[in-house]
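QA checklist item 7 of 12: single-chain prediction sanity check.
[x] sequence parsed
[x] length recorded as 319
[x] structure emitted
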Amino acid sequence: MHSLCARTDRGVLDECSASYDGGVADHRADQSAYRSGSSDRLLWDIACPGRPSRIPGVTMAGFGDRGRTPPELRLIPHPAVTLVLVVDGTVAALDAGGRLLTGSFVAGVGFGDSLRIVRADAFACVQVRLSPTVARAALGPVITELDATVVTLDELLGGDAGRLTGRLSGLGSWEERFAVADAFVAERCATVERSNPEVDWAWQQIVAARGTGQIEALAAELGWSRKRLWSQFRSRIGLTPKRAARLVRFDQAVHRLVAGQQAVEVAAEIGYADQSHLHREIADFTGLTPGTVVKEPFLAVDDVAWGWPGRDTGRLQRS
């Protein structure tokens, strides 16, 4: 049975559950999920798949308009390729170059700080996050050339884009949409050569270390030169190993800040030189400060949509 986020009379998120193929998910959040003025309310209905994707490294969530979406929304960089499948209504995004993209779109791993949603009317969409080790197989080699930019789904997939979104739009439940999106990713992964295992391993190590490990040590462990690791990683992932590690650590940092930790504590726990270093990294990725980034709506609902803290996000293996 289709189920979306429900709220109790106390204004606390009670549950977010959706099921397909017999799976049931139950995610809970407290009153910090989203605050708008004096009212504690979620901006969107959020549907959560009841079971993991058949492809490790792929997660998804459904978002439905509740008439409260702000006129402009900043998308926060994340260590995954982001696929937004619009199944109803209108969604329009503005990229860093000022280009307006309407409908479904794909954002490269760690997309820049200028990507914004500038229109979202009566919409429903499935958002899919793909580990960069999976994205190349699912979306083609060109995905690694996006270089933190955005393209429409039509530009990336051609006729397959319309067929996918058309099918999703004809479905009446979130569980059906999740199943179709998952099957689409699985089918494309099955017919395309996956990334090489050395690069997969290097990415896993960066994620496992939460972006704090020594990149040179990865090259030594592989028996590769630093130059070879940089070249292979960049061509397969779309970022250099150093940029990837910074992005993973940034993702850890902002979610800890959203959870209520103090900036000085976060900086110390995840290996920043000092609080000023943390400030500089957040500014580089978002243009914001630690105090303002925590108010971003998409970050505020991550614990609902993605089950944060989900420190294994982006890994190839699930526990």
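[x] summary fact logged: The two ends are 26 Å apart (CA to CA).
[ ] second reviewer sign-off
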